[in-house]
Design goal:
By secondary structure, the protein is mostly helical. Helices cover about 80% and strands about 0% of the residues. Helix 1 runs antiparallel to helix 2.
């Protein structure tokens, strides 16, 4: 088992990525460039968590978690736009927004914990 597979935040990001992919496949009216950016940003969250877990230096690990958190903010902003443009339902909006917020909070704590070690 890889170290990232034991991380709660990775598993939450993985599950969230699957939901984003399914939603983007179902909503045909979302412009392709938005679908592309949303898919890439949500994938970036889980991949940066995974890559960071493989780093041995705390500074590098913290950097990857910071990038993952930035991608989480990007996804939250895209979710806001999709809802404002009436591209997604309120149910999907509130679920995704809540999940991105939870992932962001976990990443924040992880980053702060790593900061206290340097």
């Amino acid at each position: 088992m890889f170290p990232y597979e034991r991380l709660i935040v990775y598993n939450k990001a993985f599950d969230n990525q699957r939901k984003v992919m399914l939603m983007l496949h179902q909503y045909k009216s979302i412009p392709a460039y938005v679908k592309n950016q949303f898919g890439r940003a949500s994938l970036s969250i889980m991949l940066n968590i995974a890559e960071g877990s493989g780093r041995t230096r705390i500074k590098e690990r913290k950097n990857f978690l910071t990038i993952a958190r930035g991608s989480t903010f990007e996804c939250a902003a895209i979710t806001d736009l999709l809802f404002a443009q009436e591209e997604i339902s309120y149910e999907n909006y509130s679920k995704l927004k809540s999940e991105f917020e939870e992932i962001s909070k976990i990443l924040y704590v992880m980053i702060k914990n790593l900061s206290s070690k340097t």
